[in-house]
Amino acid sequence: MSSLHDIRKLDCNTLGVNAPETTRWVSWETIKDELRNFLHQNPLAVSRVAHVEGPHGSGKSTAMLEYIWQEMQSLSPDTMVIYVPSFGPEATMLCAYFESQASPHQKLKQSTHIGLRRVVERKLHLATIAEAREAFRNDALYGMLPDRIALLMDLEQMPTADGELFLCELTQWHRLRRPSEVTIITMATFSRPPVHELLAVGLGLSASKCQHIKMRYEQGSHVPSPSRTLHMADMPLEVV
């Protein structure tokens, strides 16, 4: 039996595998122009939906989040930006990460807020699906949220009742509330089923107000900064 030392010495040639000539990776920066065009098209008095498709580690929930928040602040400072991750505890973890010294995302330092019970102007609000459901239900009845909202949400790889109900309640909220501007961006590693298209139909939007933005491969010898994968080592000890 081969020892662990022998196994570690195996290379691609020994295994009969052709090593790639260059490193290939997918970064959210490959869709930066498309995102900007989507956010800047008729920025006021409109509802629109987009789905961003990209693999894990491409910066969707970190650098891209920061970019979208900045763009929305520049377009309309009174817009409430909400991010709903598919994994509940991730909201708390991300908030702690953005505030920590490990985070390279300087624009989000002191600019995040956990939960939706209280609207904090010019902050990125991070919330669980349950918190988002409660907030949008209450807003449909009592009008508690601002008239301009940008909702960013991770789609669940394994759908849950909470997640499916939130999508239904979101369309119901839009019909009852009729806000002046709603920007919805769903994010996932997949594009089927086409949730963004179903949302667009539910919100009564035309095809021109619904986009599928897919990240592309880049070639090079290194992974660019600042896009990098978020590791548990980046988390403050009290969060871990």
Structural notes for this entry:
This protein is α/β, with parallel strands linked by helices. The chain contains eight helices and nine strands. Helix 6 runs parallel beside helix 7. It is globular and about 45 Å long. Residues 221-228 have low confidence and may be disordered.
Summarize the structure.
The chain has 240 residues and is α/β, with parallel strands linked by helices. The protein has helices spanning 4-8, 12-15, 32-40, 63-75, 90-99, 129-142, 161-177, 195-202; strands spanning 23-26, 47-53, 80-84, 112-114, 124-126, 148-154, 181-188, 210-214, 217-220. The protein has 8 helices and 9 strands.
SSE order and pairing:
Blueprint: H1 4-8, H2 12-15, E1 23-26, H3 32-40, E2 47-53, H4 63-75, E3 80-84, H5 90-99, E4 112-114, E5 124-126, H6 129-142, E6 148-154, H7 161-177, E7 181-188, H8 195-202, E8 210-214, E9 217-220
Parallel strand pairs: 2-7, 2-8, 3-5, 3-6, 4-5, 6-7
Antiparallel strand pairs: 1-9
Helix pairs in contact: 3-4, 6-7
Name its key features.
240 residues; 9 strands; alpha/beta; 8 helices; seven-stranded parallel β-sheet
Adjacency order of strands in the biggest sheet? 4-5-3-6-7-2-8
Fraction of residues in helix: 25-40%
Biggest sheet details: 7 strands, parallel
Count of helical stretches: 8
Percent of residues in beta strands: 15-25%
Give the beta-strand count.
9
Average pLDDT number:
83
Q: What class, by secondary structure content?
A: alpha/beta
Q: How large, in whole angstroms, is the Cα Rg? A: 20 Å
Report how far apart the termini are: 39 Å
